[in-house]
Amino acid sequence: MSTTGDAAVSNPTFDPDAVRERYRQERDKRIRDNGPDQYLEMAGTFAHFAEEDPYADPGFTREPIAEDFDIAIIGGGFSGLLAAARLIEQGVSSFRIIEAGADFGGTWYWNRYPGAQCDTESYCYLPLLEELGYMPKEKYSYVNEIFEHSQRVGRKYGLYERAILQTRVQSVDWDEPLGRWRISTNRNDTLRVRFVVMALGTTTRAKLPGIPGIDTFEGHSFHTSRWDYGYTGGDNTGGMTGLADKRVAVIGTGATAIQVIPRVAADAGELFVFQRTPSTVDWRRNRPTDPDWF
Length: 294
What we know:
26% helix, FAD/NAD(P)-binding domain, 18% strand, single chain, alpha/beta, 10 strands
């Protein structure tokens, strides 16, 4: 039996070989022999891109901690928060959460650039909605709501009093005679625990493109994950008056850039976007949450 669809497959109105060749070319742009080595770590010459936490007290200090407890959760994003919440629900209280930022949130603590938003439906992405009795404002939540939700989880389960914030883990070593993990940090802490929960994410660790000259560029530059509102003005909803007379360049057109570019374009005197490989962009169809549906 023949159908119109069968005819379209047998006699396409486009050149399939040309389409395959185009996809091959785009694929080869992404599959590089040097793999992740094409990117630069924010260290050494590039440490200034990440060395400061724009949301923390720069003068924060504390005495080193020496403690023994059952469980160390490394990371205060949603993975760490959810692990901690489930421990509390099971009556386990001998644990600590070690987090590099000055608050919970993980990627949503660090990435507060203009237009920052989740690409996954909030009803699936935000954890513990039923337990907290919370209804997301929209189908796709913006960063402020997501960050506030992480704080809400922390308050609900009493996690702030178990948090060791503004602290980076430097090593985790097994002490065989003691039968414990020894954890050392950048604040000279000595923590001894029975179990370690690795709740580290990947989107809190920024990287830079290995572009020649990036280390000698004399203009003002920063990474989106450490957005410099002191320079641009405004906040993550826009209003960046500091860019009104500036020529701004955005390098890359991934998910972050797609969210940033419209906000910067609205405020910058002039905007240039540099794209290596095209992204797929579609209509998000975001909308307020219907309470009756929810």
